[in-house]
């Protein structure tokens, strides 16, 4: 069965600081990996996805993620966060008909 | 704006009642997915329809059912509602399979009193 673990429930960073959100997955075959962001009261917006090829994936809003097969990880990074990045971030694994989501990481930005 | 629309935005009802949530996929998309987001269970896949046919089933209760119509819009029917069914229900769509990016609608917030 596929699963996703996001070990950090809540992260607080200062505006302008760097960010890394962790994601570990379990999947029996080649995984299709996604990061979505959910702002309060909003739906889910895709930040980036990995299907194959280059293991460093660039997304929207200055985010990137690196797929590491040996560590079963797909961590999300941003070099300098903005106050508007405050939201909940979900990592997901797919490859068949459904997406399996992690429990999410809530990101708080302090001035 | 993902192009996926969901109505209503909010729904408040009582236990034991039945409600219908509606989803219109992005233009050209054939697959519709339903997800439930609750504090207890997080984001969970419920069911997928492809071009009018059920394709995959997840953690969907027997009290819940869905269908996809010839114009490709989908409805999720929730019956005999319980307090624990209070959640945000998302619809997502893509052209075909689960490997394509799923685009999410804004959700319907269901409150059962």
Write a concise keyword list for the protein shown above.
heterodimer; A: 111 residues; B: 113 residues; 4-stranded antiparallel β-sheet
Low-confidence stretches of chain A: none
The greatest interface here is: A-B, 22 and 24 residues
Which structural category fits the helices and strands of chain B?
Answer: mainly beta
How many individual helices of chain B? 0
Structural class of chain A: mainly beta
Radius of gyration of chain A: 13 Å
N- and C-termini, Cα separation of chain A? 41 Å
What's the SSE pattern of chain A?
A: EEEEEEEEEEEE
Secondary-structure element series of chain B: EEEEEEEEEEE
- Summarize the main sheet of chain B: 7 strands, mixed
Q: Uncertain regions of chain B: pLDDT < 50 for 5+ in a row?
A: none
Helix content of chain A: under 10%
Average of pLDDT of chain A: 92
Q: On the 0-100 scale, what is the average pLDDT of chain B?
A: 94
Largest sheet of chain A: 6 strands, mixed
Descriptive account of the structure:
The complex is a heterodimer of chains A (111) and B (113). Chain A is 0% helix and 52% strand. Chain A contains no helices and 12 strands. In chain A, a hairpin with a 4-residue loop joins strand 8 and strand 9. Chain A is globular and about 40 Å long. Chain B has strands spanning 5-7, 10-13, 19-24, 31-38, 42-50, 53-57, 64-68, 74-78, 87-94, 103-104, 108-112. In chain B, the strands form 2 sheets. In chain B, strands 2, 4, 5, 6, 9, 10 and 11 form a 7-stranded mixed sheet that branches. A 4-stranded antiparallel sheet of chain B has the order 1-3-8-7, with no helix packed on it. Classes of the chains: A mainly beta (111), B mainly beta (113). Chain A binds chain B through residues 32, 34, 36, 42-46, 49, 51, 90, 94-104, and chain B through 2, 4, 33, 35, 42-45, 48, 55-56, 58, 90, 92, 97-99, 101-107.
